[in-house]
Amino acid sequence: MTEQDILEALEEWQNLSVDPENRYAYEMRLKWLLDQLSNIRGSREEGRQEGLKEGLKKGLKEGLEQGREEGKNETIRKMVEKGMSITDVAHILDMTEEEVRERLGD
User: Fold this and answer.
1) Which of 4, 48, 55, 99: disulfide with 95, CB 3.0–4.6 Å?
2) 3-state secondary structure of 83
3) Looking at the whole model, is its pTM more than 0.85?
């Protein structure tokens, strides 16, 4: 952009500012553009908040499931250490003997 372009833009701005109708149209357009920008930013924030909420919910669910599985593995280990047969452990925990053996191998 040249100095002449800047001077012409300033002169045009002055001409627009003098005419109340043009100035009002400019201000309304500017207001509309700023409103659109605000809406976009607000939508982004809402989306970010929703994503964060869903992520936390999913993480909590996965963490609880992992905790349950670890607790079940610990229970199986302790039951076998106390002398219970794999058959009895599987029956009590409603599992197959193979599932019990797999968990003991972990």
Assistant:
1) 99
2) coil
3) no
Instruction: Quick: pLDDT tens for 22-49.
Output: 778 777 877 887 788 787 888 888 888 8
DSSP state of 40: H
**Integer Cα distance of 44 and 63 in angstroms:** 28
Contact 61, 70 (CB under 8 A): no
**Phi (first) and psi of residue 85, to 5 degrees:** -75, 155
Q: Tell me if 16 sits within 8 A of 26, measured CB to CB.
A: yes
* Cα gap 89→78, rounded to integer Å: 10
Quote the tokens at residue 60: 């909590």
CA distance 62 to 68: 10
Q: For the chain, what are the domain ranges?
A: 3-105
